[in-house]
Amino acid sequence: MQIVLVFAIIALLFAAGYIISNAVLSQKPDSVIEITIDGDKAGEQLEDIALSVRIVADKYFKNSSVFVRGGRSELSEAVCKVYGMTKI
Fold it and tell me: What is the pTM of this model?
């Protein structure tokens, strides 16, 4: 039973990696990517999430825009200002 679970987990990880790599590699050079972070769901981890999203967006999606929706007003405004995001 345990060996089946191990193979199932490996298959799921492989499938997730395949889907993500196809999404990244299939983007045309002039594609515009818009990423929205839900500040209410992120809560106090908004800054960590915003930094991670900004790094991935800059590395893999050259024409990307990152938006922050909701969240604590002071925190989301500060995060937007520091990481160059737009609050909606």
Answer: 0.62
- Cβ atoms of 18 and 10 closer than 8 Å: no
By three-state DSSP, how is residue 70 classified?
coil
* Each residue's pLDDT expressed in tens, for the chain with a length of 88 residues: 678 888 888 888 887 777 777 776 676 767 778 888 888 888 888 888 888 888 888 887 778 888 898 878 888 898 889 988 888 8
Tokens coding 86: 């737009």
**Residues in the chain, overall count:** 88
Q: What residues does 64 pair with on adjacent strands? A: 33
User: Per the structure, how many domains does the chain have?
Assistant: 1
Tokens 């045309």 appear where?
A: 28
User: Which range of residues forms the domain containing residue 56?
Assistant: 2-87
